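Bench notes, afternoon.
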Amino acid sequence: MASRAPHFIIYSHGFGVRKTDRGLFTAIADALPDIQSVMFDYNPINEKSNTITVRPLPDQALKLRRVINTVRGEHPGAIIDLVCHSQGCVVAALLKPRHIRKVIMLTPPADMSEAAVVERLGTRKSIDIDVAGRTRLQSSDGGTTVIRPDYWEGLAGINLIKLYDRFARFTNLRIISAKQDELLGDVNFKISNPTISVVNLDGNHNFDSPEDRKRIVYVVQKELASE
């Protein structure tokens, strides 16, 4: 009897957070113990000052490529799924990796223009710009997120709806939006690719409430459980 191929979920986290995506990814991973989870940080972290420096999106896409290639190199023939959240969905769509079985996008943005990002960042309590042109954001957990000028340059010309449409040509893509998304608002995905399914669930951007978190974990678990 042939052995089953190893199964991995690679997680692509959102803007200005660590690899666990503030507990969202660990909750999903805990619900899928039979699948190997791969979490990694896109951005350099200074643990002493609790500071995350956000890399430009193309650099993050290259990091995702390296992680996928490492899994494939160490486990030839492995089944690989992606679970992406928020900006992590954009990173995956920019890369458009081939031979991914399924991709689950949780609360992906429909607009990553500089104006849209600035508007979302405007909800932060403290924003400063230093002499080097770096934007510094104070997080609710006491940490600092630093955005360099090259991050803003990397946003130019990105059309997310077209990116998602093109990505779905190479993989099985599911989009899950949050009905009470306090960051993105009411997102209307006018997707032209009929293979993409869009599901709207109750919850805020991170599905923080216990009931909403339980629901999103169940939906992802059902979608990605080994067949």
